[in-house]
Amino acid sequence: MEKSIEMRLSNKTSFSQTVNNSLTMAYRGLLKVRHTPEQLLDVTAQPILFTLMFTYLFGGAIAGNVHNYLPVIIPGILAQSIITGSVAIGVQLREDMDKGVFDRFKSLPIARIAPLAGALLADTIRYAIVTILTFAMGYLMGYRPGAGIAGVMEVGVLVIAFAWCTSWIFAFAGVVGRTAASVQGISMMVVFPLTFLSNAFVSVNTLPSVLKWFATFNPVSHLITAIRELVNKDVIGQDFWLTILGAGVILSIFAPLTIRAYIRKV
Amino acid sequence: MILSQVKNPSVAVEAHGLVKKFGDNLAVNGVDLSIPRGSIYGVLGPNGAGKTTAISMLSTLLKPDAGTARIFGHEVLKEAQIVRRLIGLTGQYASVDEMLSAGENLFIFGRLLGLSRNDARAKSAELLEEFGLSQAAKRQVKKFSGGMRRRLDLAASLIARPPLIFLDEPTTGLDPRTRNQMWQTIRRLVAEGSTVLLTTQYLDEADQLADRIAVIDHGKVIAEGTPGELKASVGIASPELRLMNKNNDLEARQILKRVLNVDAHISNQGMIIAPMSDPELITDLLLALRNANIRLEEVSVKTPTLDEVFLALTGHETEPDAELEEEVGMEMKN
């Protein structure tokens, strides 16, 4: 018993210890969800509500009928919900860092990055829930993706990878923000324009020129187009690669920024 | 034993000139500490004196702006991960996860400290048992009472059986019974070979527990020594006399003046009280009273309380709520 904890005194943290610590912190995140399942409200209610609401609201006007609108709106809502779902990380981090338990994490001989990495890792479950619920709602309303279940799985991997990258933006807000409420506010100001000023609900061709310009370059539009091509036609096109590129750019900017700000605080 | 690997196994904490500034506020202003292994060291001071800031620097949570600190010979700044392996920290505000259950908390901390799943589970059960929390193992910590939280917090600090334990105000806000339990636990830890650094604003607590005490005020150590030394440093032991015959008061006070060379005064209860620099003089005083044929109804020599020590050292009283806390302290002794 005592023996297992008795290890050589070293000032370095090994890679395997970093991975183990991060997995433990991710497990902690899952335990928290089990105690307060309402944490999942944003990733469960939004896909269900938005799918129902927007499909029946806009379906007739935009696509002539609900059925024709489904292949357009389901990928749109999936992208929107997954990005909204990735916002929570910032608020969670801020709340965590303000709590006494974080002092203990800081005083433990663990990898400094573990609480951050663990939180990002634990969010995978949230993204999986968003993906499954959105497609399940679509299915109930009569949506039958052209690429079948395999296409849905591929899209699942794509959106989860994309969410991992965008969540660094909000993790950054969480680390540098002063209060959980301000982090929430700032994050939402980023999320709303990004997700609504895209091709999620309407074709960009219908937009006035400035909006059209923004919506065309918006990485979220590329993600949505990539999802549509993948899940409806089983095609990996230009937008797929642009999405990967965009996510990579976000990651390469915000991951180092976040880690640097975070390490300075812990 | 992990201490066989450290650079200096005999000195648990050694700090020189620790300074921490928050903006213009010098929270800690040149603190020196030397704490031998196996002792209880008390850092005593009112709210805002810099106790928590000092502990935060010693436990690697805060970087000092100046000065050095070593834990068992290892530099807090340069060898932070080694230092973290040697310490356990119980914060002023429970440093456990409120959202999780008690068992889950200990399991997670055990895993983070490198225990296997089975070992972490076993250790968690063992500590819950030890701290009388087995019944509450599955309950969320946010539903715990203050005392249970503190016990869980301390249990979490002991998972790796660290040789040095920091306790930041371990009994603040606890009821007398829980406070007594906490004191017993702290004494047991030291009996088992741990070194404990505790901060407190309870004078009584430092007096009861600590082998040595540093009195800290406005970020500075203003006095350091054993509780006895601190009391003696104020330089007084006060004889309190009650005479059989009140008419002798004046003569008695003249004798006191002659023998002790100080002015005596009469307390509200009618006792004659005189501060005395040397307790030996009490014999001379009593003999002089006997020779003058002044008979005593009651006599006692009072050593100053730490309250009086603090007043003498800082020139101001302890925090306003200290009075209430003292009452709690008095109950404890009974």
What does this structure look like?
The complex is a heterodimer of chains A (266) and B (334). With 266 residues, chain A is mostly helical. Chain A has helices at 2-5, 15-35, 41-63, 66-97, 100-107, 114-122, 124-140, 148-176, 180-196, 209-217, 219-233, 238-265. Chain A has one domain (40-92, 125-265). Helix content of chain A is 80%, strand content 0%. Chain A is elongated, with a radius of gyration of 20 Å. Residues 1-6 of chain A have low confidence and may be disordered. Chain B is of the alpha/beta class and 334 residues long. Chain B has helices spanning 51-58, 80-86, 102-112, 117-130, 146-157, 176-191, 203-209, 227-233, 249-260, 281-291, 306-314, 322-333, and strands spanning 11-22, 25-36, 40-44, 66-71, 74-75, 87-90, 164-168, 195-200, 212-217, 220-225, 238-243, 265-266, 272-273, 296-302. In chain B, the strands form three sheets. Chain B has a six-stranded mixed β-sheet with strand order 6-7-8-3-9-10, with helices on both faces. In chain B, strands 2-1-4-5 form a four-stranded antiparallel β-sheet, covered by helices on one side. In chain B, strands 12-13-11-14 form a four-stranded antiparallel β-sheet, with no helix packed on it. The A-B interface holds A 1-2, 4-13, 17, 20-21, 24-25, 27-28, 31-32, 35-36, 99-110, 114 and B 2, 5-6, 59-61, 78-82, 84-89, 91, 93-101, 104, 108-109, 111-116, 119, 122-123, 140, 156, 159-161.
Compact overview of the structure:
By secondary structure, chain A is an all-alpha fold.
Question: Mean of residue pLDDT of chain A?
Answer: 91
Q: Report the total helices of chain A.
A: 12
Quaternary: heterodimer
Cα gyration radius of chain B (Å):
24 Å
Please report the two chains with the greatest interface, counting residues with C-beta closer than 8 angstroms to the partner's C-beta: A-B, 36 and 44 residues
